[in-house]
Design goal:
globular; Rossmann fold; alpha/beta; binds 1-O-pyrophosphono-5-O-phosphono-alpha-D-ribofuranose
Length: 207
């Protein structure tokens, strides 16, 4: 199963701070971006390099390594995914941004899509889908369906917290998609919230 629980001490420390209900919106936002940058570092660790020649400090040609044809589009899921975007783009400043909007109907827990503006060359890019929460998995599956329907071939998912139920559903529907999460929490409660989780990440990011 392509699940990566990124258990680096810095991530665990920062996520622990985020679970504290007393945390301010400002601090929650800052930490969401910091954890997202660390997840990006891990999620791109197998990107391939290729040698290229540049003039070195003494103007003699030297060989350096650069990313091989690796073009990225970052896909924040509105609205909470925006809370991770700066952290990802800090590390991949040349990435294009593809925005999708989905919310979860609070009664049925089914995803409702309302916005889609994707990079025009999606098929040539690796997509990094970002959303703080992977709960029932419905939102993520709908997003991955949407991206694949538009030709996207290589997709990775970055979330702050995932529920086992959601991970199982997403990996069953999209076994080719790797999921990078800072934590795999215990379960979903009866209202579809992750336990212990972070609460409503959108509300905590936007206030
Ligand atoms: C939250 C979260 C995910 C979704 C996860 O968004 O940010 O997008 O729920 O739930 P699922 O895995 O059960 O589908 P929400 O619906 O609260 O919308 P928001 O980001 O606009 O606040």
């Amino acid at each position: 199963m392509a699940l990566h629980i990124v258990s680096h001490p810095l991530i665990q420390h920062k996520l622990g701070l985020m679970r504290d209900v007393r945390l301010s919106t400002k601090s929650f936002r800052e930490l969401a971006n910091e954890v997202s940058a660390l997840l990006t570092y891990e999620a791109t660790s197998d990107f391939e390099l290729e040698p290229t020649e540049v003039p070195g400090w003494d103007h003699k040609a030297i060989e350096v390594q650069q990313l091989r044809g690796k073009k990225v589009t970052v896909v924040p899921i509105l609205r909470a995914g925006l809370g991770m975007l700066d952290g990802v783009v800090d590390l991949i400043p040349a990435a294009k941004i593809s925005v999708v909007g989905l919310y979860r109907d609070e009664t049925t827990l089914e995803p409702v899509a309302y916005f889609e503006k994707l990079a025009s060359d999606l098929a040539q890019r690796t997509a990094l889908v970002i959303d703080p929460m992977l709960a029932t998995g419905g939102t993520m599956i709908a997003t991955l369906d949407m991206l694949k329907a538009k030709g996207c071939k290589e997709i990775r998912v970055l979330v702050l917290v995932a529920a086992p139920e959601g991970v199982a559903k997403v990996t069953a529907a999209h076994p080719d998609v790797a999921i990078y999460t800072a934590a795999l929490d215990e379960r979903l409660n009866d209202d579809g919230y992750i336990v212990p989780g972070l609460g409503d990440a959108g509300d905590r990011i936007f206030g």
